[in-house]
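Notes from the 1:1 (GR / supervisor)

We went over the backlog. Supervisor wanted to see one worked example end to end before approving the batch request, so GR pasted a single chain during the call. The sequence is below; no edits were made to it. Supervisor asked that the structure be written out right there so they could see what the output format looks like.
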Amino acid sequence: MSDETKVSTVIVTWNSSRDIEACLKSLLQQTHSVHEIVLVDNASSDGTAELVAKLFPSVNLIRLDYNAGFAKGNNIAIVRTTGEWVLALNPDAVIESDWIEKLLAFSNAHPKAGALGGLLLRADGGSDGEVLDSVGIEIYRSRRVRDRGAGELANDLPVEPSRVFGVCAAAALYRREMLADVSVSGEVFPESFYCYYEDADLAWRAWRRGWEAWILPTAVGRHHRGGSPTGAKFSRYLTHRNRMWMIVRNDRFGSLWSSLPEILFHEILLLLRMLRYPYLIKASLEAFLGLPKAFRARKLLASTLNSPPPFLPGVGFTAIEQKNALRRIRNI
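Structure output shown during the call:
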Protein backbone atom coordinates (compact mmCIF):
# COMPACT_ATOMS: atom_id res chain seq x y z
CA MET A 1 0.00 0.00 0.00
CA SER A 2 1.64 3.19 -1.16
CA ASP A 3 1.65 6.48 0.64
CA GLU A 4 -0.55 7.77 -2.19
CA THR A 5 -3.60 6.12 -0.60
CA LYS A 6 -5.56 9.05 0.76
CA VAL A 7 -6.76 8.83 4.34
CA SER A 8 -9.06 11.55 5.61
CA THR A 9 -9.61 12.03 9.33
CA VAL A 10 -12.81 13.26 10.96
CA ILE A 11 -12.99 14.43 14.57
CA VAL A 12 -15.95 15.79 16.53
CA THR A 13 -15.20 17.91 19.58
CA TRP A 14 -17.24 19.30 22.41
CA ASN A 15 -15.34 20.94 25.26
CA SER A 16 -12.31 18.82 24.36
CA SER A 17 -9.50 21.27 25.06
CA ARG A 18 -7.90 18.86 27.56
CA ASP A 19 -7.23 16.20 24.92
CA ILE A 20 -7.38 17.58 21.40
CA GLU A 21 -3.75 18.69 21.13
CA ALA A 22 -2.39 15.20 21.85
CA CYS A 23 -4.95 13.69 19.48
CA LEU A 24 -3.99 15.91 16.56
CA LYS A 25 -0.27 15.50 17.18
CA SER A 26 -0.65 11.72 16.97
CA LEU A 27 -2.27 12.16 13.56
CA LEU A 28 0.43 14.47 12.25
CA GLN A 29 3.13 11.99 13.31
CA GLN A 30 1.75 9.07 11.25
CA THR A 31 4.21 7.21 9.02
CA HIS A 32 1.46 7.12 6.40
CA SER A 33 0.58 10.78 6.14
CA VAL A 34 -2.99 11.94 6.64
CA HIS A 35 -4.44 13.56 3.53
CA GLU A 36 -6.73 15.93 5.43
CA ILE A 37 -8.24 16.50 8.85
CA VAL A 38 -11.78 17.80 9.17
CA LEU A 39 -12.77 18.78 12.71
CA VAL A 40 -16.33 19.69 13.64
CA ASP A 41 -16.64 21.58 16.91
CA ASN A 42 -20.04 21.31 18.59
CA ALA A 43 -20.14 24.83 20.05
CA SER A 44 -17.51 24.22 22.72
CA SER A 45 -17.36 26.76 25.53
CA ASP A 46 -13.88 25.84 26.78
CA GLY A 47 -11.82 27.28 23.92
CA THR A 48 -11.41 24.03 21.96
CA ALA A 49 -12.01 25.63 18.56
CA GLU A 50 -9.71 28.56 19.33
CA LEU A 51 -6.94 26.20 20.44
CA VAL A 52 -7.21 24.15 17.24
CA ALA A 53 -7.24 27.25 15.04
CA LYS A 54 -4.13 28.61 16.75
CA LEU A 55 -2.00 25.45 16.99
CA PHE A 56 -3.19 23.50 13.93
CA PRO A 57 -3.99 25.93 11.11
CA SER A 58 -3.94 23.14 8.50
CA VAL A 59 -6.99 21.50 10.09
CA ASN A 60 -10.27 22.17 8.31
CA LEU A 61 -12.16 23.52 11.30
CA ILE A 62 -15.94 23.70 11.14
CA ARG A 63 -17.48 25.61 14.03
CA LEU A 64 -21.12 24.88 14.75
CA ASP A 65 -23.23 27.24 16.82
CA TYR A 66 -25.06 24.31 18.43
CA ASN A 67 -24.23 20.83 19.70
CA ALA A 68 -25.16 18.54 16.80
CA GLY A 69 -24.04 15.39 18.63
CA PHE A 70 -21.46 12.78 17.72
CA ALA A 71 -23.38 11.13 14.88
CA LYS A 72 -24.39 14.25 12.96
CA GLY A 73 -21.05 15.93 13.66
CA ASN A 74 -19.24 13.02 12.01
CA ASN A 75 -21.64 13.05 9.07
CA ILE A 76 -21.01 16.76 8.55
CA ALA A 77 -17.26 16.07 8.52
CA ILE A 78 -17.37 12.96 6.31
CA VAL A 79 -19.13 14.67 3.40
CA ARG A 80 -16.33 17.24 3.37
CA THR A 81 -13.59 14.63 2.92
CA THR A 82 -12.19 13.05 -0.25
CA GLY A 83 -9.96 10.19 0.91
CA GLU A 84 -10.40 6.54 -0.06
CA TRP A 85 -10.43 5.79 3.66
CA VAL A 86 -12.02 7.77 6.48
CA LEU A 87 -10.48 7.64 9.94
CA ALA A 88 -12.97 8.47 12.69
CA LEU A 89 -11.08 9.47 15.82
CA ASN A 90 -12.34 10.68 19.17
CA PRO A 91 -10.66 13.83 20.50
CA ASP A 92 -9.68 11.91 23.66
CA ALA A 93 -7.90 9.18 21.68
CA VAL A 94 -4.37 8.95 20.30
CA ILE A 95 -2.87 6.42 17.90
CA GLU A 96 0.72 5.22 17.59
CA SER A 97 2.68 6.50 14.61
CA ASP A 98 2.34 3.31 12.51
CA TRP A 99 -1.39 2.78 13.18
CA ILE A 100 -2.63 3.86 9.75
CA GLU A 101 0.25 2.21 7.90
CA LYS A 102 -0.41 -1.18 9.49
CA LEU A 103 -4.14 -1.13 8.85
CA LEU A 104 -3.77 -0.07 5.22
CA ALA A 105 -1.20 -2.84 4.63
CA PHE A 106 -3.67 -5.36 6.05
CA SER A 107 -6.48 -4.06 3.84
CA ASN A 108 -4.52 -5.00 0.70
CA ALA A 109 -5.40 -8.66 1.14
CA HIS A 110 -8.95 -8.00 2.39
CA PRO A 111 -10.97 -6.13 -0.24
CA LYS A 112 -14.23 -6.71 1.69
CA ALA A 113 -12.82 -5.15 4.86
CA GLY A 114 -15.02 -2.12 5.33
CA ALA A 115 -13.96 -1.25 8.89
CA LEU A 116 -10.57 -1.71 10.54
CA GLY A 117 -9.40 -1.06 14.07
CA GLY A 118 -6.55 -1.83 16.38
CA LEU A 119 -5.87 -2.58 20.02
CA LEU A 120 -7.44 0.30 21.93
CA LEU A 121 -6.14 0.68 25.48
CA ARG A 122 -7.30 2.87 28.36
CA ALA A 123 -5.10 5.92 28.42
CA ASP A 124 -4.77 5.96 32.20
CA GLY A 125 -3.99 2.22 32.48
CA GLY A 126 -4.26 0.53 35.85
CA SER A 127 -2.19 -0.48 38.86
CA ASP A 128 -1.77 -4.00 37.47
CA GLY A 129 -0.82 -2.97 33.95
CA GLU A 130 -2.41 -1.92 30.66
CA VAL A 131 -6.22 -2.10 30.54
CA LEU A 132 -8.24 -2.76 27.41
CA ASP A 133 -10.69 -0.16 26.20
CA SER A 134 -11.94 -1.93 23.07
CA VAL A 135 -10.83 -4.75 20.81
CA GLY A 136 -13.83 -4.40 18.55
CA ILE A 137 -17.58 -4.37 19.11
CA GLU A 138 -19.40 -7.55 20.10
CA ILE A 139 -23.15 -8.18 20.11
CA TYR A 140 -25.06 -10.63 22.28
CA ARG A 141 -28.18 -12.65 21.55
CA SER A 142 -30.01 -10.13 23.74
CA ARG A 143 -28.91 -7.48 21.19
CA ARG A 144 -26.89 -5.74 23.87
CA VAL A 145 -23.65 -4.34 22.48
CA ARG A 146 -20.37 -4.06 24.35
CA ASP A 147 -16.78 -3.12 23.64
CA ARG A 148 -14.94 -6.42 23.41
CA GLY A 149 -12.47 -6.81 26.26
CA ALA A 150 -13.35 -3.51 27.93
CA GLY A 151 -11.87 -3.24 31.42
CA GLU A 152 -9.79 -6.40 31.16
CA LEU A 153 -6.04 -6.51 31.59
CA ALA A 154 -4.17 -6.49 28.30
CA ASN A 155 -2.16 -9.62 29.03
CA ASP A 156 -1.17 -12.34 26.54
CA LEU A 157 -3.25 -10.91 23.73
CA PRO A 158 -3.03 -12.56 20.31
CA VAL A 159 -1.15 -10.59 17.68
CA GLU A 160 -3.03 -12.16 14.79
CA PRO A 161 -5.89 -10.19 13.17
CA SER A 162 -9.41 -11.23 14.10
CA ARG A 163 -12.73 -10.66 12.40
CA VAL A 164 -15.29 -8.94 14.63
CA PHE A 165 -18.86 -7.66 14.44
CA GLY A 166 -17.72 -4.03 14.34
CA VAL A 167 -15.11 -1.47 15.31
CA CYS A 168 -15.45 1.14 18.04
CA ALA A 169 -15.74 4.56 16.41
CA ALA A 170 -13.35 6.06 18.97
CA ALA A 171 -10.62 4.97 16.52
CA ALA A 172 -11.90 3.32 13.37
CA LEU A 173 -10.70 3.27 9.77
CA TYR A 174 -13.59 3.01 7.30
CA ARG A 175 -13.45 2.26 3.58
CA ARG A 176 -15.34 5.04 1.81
CA GLU A 177 -16.89 2.55 -0.60
CA MET A 178 -18.45 0.77 2.38
CA LEU A 179 -19.75 3.99 3.93
CA ALA A 180 -21.42 4.94 0.66
CA ASP A 181 -22.92 1.47 0.31
CA VAL A 182 -24.55 1.35 3.77
CA SER A 183 -25.60 4.98 4.21
CA VAL A 184 -29.32 5.56 4.77
CA SER A 185 -30.81 8.81 3.48
CA GLY A 186 -27.29 10.18 3.20
CA GLU A 187 -26.43 9.40 6.83
CA VAL A 188 -23.39 7.26 7.69
CA PHE A 189 -24.17 7.42 11.40
CA PRO A 190 -27.88 7.63 12.32
CA GLU A 191 -28.35 11.21 13.43
CA SER A 192 -31.45 10.44 15.49
CA PHE A 193 -29.17 8.45 17.84
CA TYR A 194 -27.20 11.63 18.68
CA CYS A 195 -24.48 9.45 20.22
CA TYR A 196 -24.02 5.90 21.57
CA TYR A 197 -24.82 2.76 19.56
CA GLU A 198 -24.28 4.73 16.35
CA ASP A 199 -21.14 2.73 15.54
CA ALA A 200 -22.95 -0.54 16.34
CA ASP A 201 -25.77 0.41 13.98
CA LEU A 202 -23.19 1.15 11.28
CA ALA A 203 -21.50 -2.20 11.98
CA TRP A 204 -24.80 -4.07 11.63
CA ARG A 205 -25.65 -2.34 8.34
CA ALA A 206 -22.19 -3.19 7.02
CA TRP A 207 -22.68 -6.84 8.06
CA ARG A 208 -26.02 -6.94 6.27
CA ARG A 209 -24.32 -5.74 3.08
CA GLY A 210 -21.52 -8.31 3.23
CA TRP A 211 -18.71 -6.07 4.48
CA GLU A 212 -16.17 -7.29 7.03
CA ALA A 213 -14.76 -5.68 10.18
CA TRP A 214 -11.30 -6.61 11.44
CA ILE A 215 -9.11 -5.87 14.44
CA LEU A 216 -5.33 -5.76 14.04
CA PRO A 217 -3.86 -5.94 17.58
CA THR A 218 -0.42 -4.68 16.50
CA ALA A 219 -1.97 -1.29 15.65
CA VAL A 220 -2.20 0.38 19.06
CA GLY A 221 -4.19 3.36 20.26
CA ARG A 222 -5.17 4.81 23.63
CA HIS A 223 -8.51 6.20 24.68
CA HIS A 224 -8.99 8.49 27.65
CA ARG A 225 -12.81 8.18 27.83
CA GLY A 226 -14.79 10.98 29.36
CA GLY A 227 -13.17 13.49 27.02
CA SER A 228 -16.48 15.32 26.78
CA PRO A 229 -18.22 16.08 30.10
CA THR A 230 -21.55 14.24 29.81
CA GLY A 231 -22.16 11.76 32.63
CA ALA A 232 -23.63 8.35 33.37
CA LYS A 233 -27.26 9.52 33.27
CA PHE A 234 -26.81 10.91 29.77
CA SER A 235 -25.15 7.78 28.38
CA ARG A 236 -27.55 5.43 30.18
CA TYR A 237 -30.55 7.24 28.69
CA LEU A 238 -29.25 7.18 25.12
CA THR A 239 -28.02 3.58 25.15
CA HIS A 240 -31.40 2.48 26.54
CA ARG A 241 -33.22 4.29 23.72
CA ASN A 242 -30.84 3.67 20.84
CA ARG A 243 -30.57 -0.08 21.32
CA MET A 244 -34.24 -0.43 20.44
CA TRP A 245 -33.85 1.69 17.32
CA MET A 246 -30.79 -0.30 16.26
CA ILE A 247 -32.76 -3.56 16.52
CA VAL A 248 -35.69 -2.27 14.48
CA ARG A 249 -33.41 -0.76 11.83
CA ASN A 250 -31.48 -4.00 11.28
CA ASP A 251 -32.85 -7.20 12.79
CA ARG A 252 -34.88 -9.97 11.18
CA PHE A 253 -37.93 -11.59 12.73
CA GLY A 254 -36.44 -15.08 12.47
CA SER A 255 -33.32 -14.05 14.34
CA LEU A 256 -35.35 -12.30 17.03
CA TRP A 257 -37.52 -15.38 17.53
CA SER A 258 -34.53 -17.70 17.92
CA SER A 259 -33.05 -15.39 20.58
CA LEU A 260 -36.30 -14.82 22.45
CA PRO A 261 -35.16 -16.22 25.87
CA GLU A 262 -32.10 -13.97 26.02
CA ILE A 263 -34.05 -10.96 24.81
CA LEU A 264 -36.80 -11.46 27.39
CA PHE A 265 -34.30 -11.90 30.21
CA HIS A 266 -32.51 -8.74 29.07
CA GLU A 267 -35.79 -6.81 29.07
CA ILE A 268 -36.52 -8.00 32.61
CA LEU A 269 -33.15 -6.66 33.71
CA LEU A 270 -33.92 -3.38 31.95
CA LEU A 271 -37.24 -3.12 33.78
CA LEU A 272 -35.39 -3.53 37.06
CA ARG A 273 -32.95 -0.86 35.99
CA MET A 274 -35.88 1.45 35.29
CA LEU A 275 -37.02 1.01 38.90
CA ARG A 276 -33.68 2.40 39.98
CA TYR A 277 -33.48 5.05 37.25
CA PRO A 278 -37.05 6.27 36.57
CA TYR A 279 -35.85 8.66 33.85
CA LEU A 280 -35.39 5.56 31.65
CA ILE A 281 -39.19 5.39 31.38
CA LYS A 282 -38.96 8.53 29.26
CA ALA A 283 -36.20 6.91 27.21
CA SER A 284 -38.49 3.93 26.54
CA LEU A 285 -41.31 6.24 25.49
CA GLU A 286 -39.01 8.15 23.16
CA ALA A 287 -37.79 4.86 21.69
CA PHE A 288 -41.40 3.78 21.07
CA LEU A 289 -42.30 7.07 19.37
CA GLY A 290 -39.24 6.74 17.11
CA LEU A 291 -40.12 3.25 15.87
CA PRO A 292 -41.87 4.36 12.64
CA LYS A 293 -38.75 6.24 11.54
CA ALA A 294 -36.59 3.24 12.44
CA PHE A 295 -38.84 0.94 10.37
CA ARG A 296 -38.54 3.27 7.38
CA ALA A 297 -34.75 3.25 7.68
CA ARG A 298 -34.80 -0.56 7.71
CA LYS A 299 -36.73 -0.65 4.44
CA LEU A 300 -34.38 1.81 2.74
CA LEU A 301 -31.38 -0.54 2.97
CA ALA A 302 -31.76 -3.99 1.47
CA SER A 303 -29.67 -6.81 2.96
CA THR A 304 -27.38 -8.74 0.62
CA LEU A 305 -26.18 -11.18 3.29
CA ASN A 306 -28.77 -13.50 4.84
CA SER A 307 -26.70 -14.85 7.72
CA PRO A 308 -27.20 -13.15 11.13
CA PRO A 309 -24.40 -11.30 12.92
CA PRO A 310 -22.12 -13.28 15.26
CA PHE A 311 -24.42 -13.10 18.28
CA LEU A 312 -22.72 -14.20 21.49
CA PRO A 313 -24.63 -16.32 24.02
CA GLY A 314 -26.10 -14.61 27.05
CA VAL A 315 -27.48 -11.14 27.72
CA GLY A 316 -24.29 -9.10 27.82
CA PHE A 317 -24.65 -7.78 31.35
CA THR A 318 -21.70 -8.47 33.60
CA ALA A 319 -22.07 -10.89 36.49
CA ILE A 320 -22.08 -7.98 38.94
CA GLU A 321 -24.81 -6.16 36.98
CA GLN A 322 -26.98 -9.28 36.92
CA LYS A 323 -26.40 -9.90 40.63
CA ASN A 324 -27.46 -6.35 41.50
CA ALA A 325 -30.57 -6.66 39.34
CA LEU A 326 -31.60 -9.94 40.97
CA ARG A 327 -31.04 -8.39 44.40
CA ARG A 328 -33.56 -5.71 43.48
CA ILE A 329 -36.08 -8.42 42.59
CA ARG A 330 -35.88 -9.77 46.12
CA ASN A 331 -36.41 -6.29 47.51
CA ILE A 332 -39.59 -5.60 45.51
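Supervisor's comment: The chain has twelve helices and twelve strands.
Batch request approved.
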